[in-house]
C-alpha cells in the first residue's frame, strides 16, 4: 500500500530525514520507533504532504505522492493525527467530526442554508466507533487530554482513510487512557480493516499491537521487521537503548 524509498529532508543543511525506508502492506499495523529527534514526525509530515521531500520516493497504491499538498494526499486515502492535538476547542465533539465528514462529501452546498443537519449519520457512526458518542455535545475545550487525542483520530476518520497515520497516539495519556487507546487501535485495525502506521514511545504498546516495526535513528532506517526480530537485533539494542533489550514482555 505504501512504500517509502530513500527519503531525505534537510532543514538548513541539517538532515532530519536521511535514507528513510518503509513498507506498509494493506491491513498491516506498522510502528515506527526511535529516540527523540530521530525524524519520525518529519517522516510523517513528508508522507502526508505537510513537508516536501528533497529526495526519494513515496509510493501510495502504485502512485508517487511525494510533494503533493496535504489535501490531495488526504483525498487519496491517507488520514493522520498529530503529536500535538489539533481540534477546534470552542466547537462540540460532534461538530469537530462533522466538519471533517462534510469536507469529504463532494457536493455543492447552499451557502444560505445551515450545514448543522448534514452528515449526521456518518458523524454518529464515527463517534460510536471511537467510543465518544456519549460526549458528542461536549465542548472540546473541556475534554480530558485522552479524549482530545481520541477525538483527533475521529476527525481523521471523517476523511474515510484507507491508511491512518498516528503520531504518538498515547503521548501524555494516563495508563488507563493508554489501555483504551490501544483497544481503539485494535478495533480500527480488526473491525474497520484500517491500515495503521504509527510512531510511539510506549514500547509495551508497540509490541502489543504492531505486525512490523521500523526503527529510525538520526533520520535513517536501521531495520524494518517483525517485533521478534527487532527485539533481538543487536544494532537496534545498541542504537536505541544502549544495549538493553528493547522490550522484555
Ligand atoms: P521525532 O519525531 O523522531 O522526535 P522530528 O522529526 O520531530 O523527530 O525531528 C527530527 C529532527 O529534525 C530534530 O533534530 C528536529 O529538531 C529537527 N527538525 C524537525 N522539524 C524541523 C524544522 N521545521 N526546522 C528545523 N529543524 C527541524
Ligand atoms: Mg515526533
Q: What Rg is obtained from the alpha carbons, in whole angstroms? A: 18 Å
CA-to-CA gap between the ends?
30 Å
The CATH superfamily title: P-loop containing nucleotide triphosphate hydrolases
Bound molecules: adenosine-5'-diphosphate, magnesium ion
Strand order of the largest sheet: 6-7-8-3-9-10
Main β sheet profile: 6 strands, mixed
* Overall CATH class: Alpha Beta
Mean residue pLDDT: 91
**Poorly predicted runs of 5 or more residues:** none
- Into how many domains do the coordinates divide? 1
**If you consult CATH, what is the topology?**
Rossmann fold
β-strand percent reads 15-25%
Secondary-structure content class: alpha/beta
SSE order, as H and E? EEEHEEHEHHHEHEHEEHH
Helicity range of the residues? 25-40%
Name some characteristics of this structure:
6-stranded mixed sheet, Rossmann fold, binds adenosine-5'-diphosphate, binds magnesium ion, single chain, alpha/beta, 4-stranded antiparallel sheet, 249 residues
How is this fold's topology laid out?
Elements: E1 2-11, E2 14-24, E3 29-33, H1 40-48, E4 55-60, E5 63-64, H2 70-75, E6 78-81, H3 93-104, H4 120-130, H5 145-157, E7 163-167, H6 175-190, E8 195-199, H7 203-209, E9 212-217, E10 220-225, H8 227-232, H9 234-241
Parallel strand pairs: 3-8, 3-9, 6-7, 7-8
Antiparallel strand pairs: 1-2, 1-4, 4-5, 9-10
Helix pairs in contact: 3-4, 3-5, 4-5
Residues 11, 14, 16, 34, 36-42 line the site of adenosine-5'-diphosphate.
Describe this entry's structure for a reader.
By secondary structure, the protein is of the alpha/beta class. The chain has one domain: 3-Layer(aba) Sandwich (Rossmann fold). 35% of the residues lie in helices and 24% in strands. The protein is built from 9 helices and 10 strands. The protein has helices at 40-48, 70-75, 93-104, 120-130, 145-157, 175-190, 203-209, 227-232, 234-241; strands at 2-11, 14-24, 29-33, 55-60, 63-64, 78-81, 163-167, 195-199, 212-217, 220-225. The strands form 2 sheets. Strands 6-7-8-3-9-10 form a 6-stranded mixed sheet, sandwiched between helices. Strands 2-1-4-5 form a 4-stranded antiparallel sheet, covered by helices on one side. A hairpin with a 2-residue loop joins strand 4 and strand 5 (63-64). The chain is globular. The chain starts with a strand and ends in an 8-residue tail after the last helix. The relative contact order is 0.18. The mean pLDDT is 91. It binds adenosine-5'-diphosphate and magnesium ion (MG).
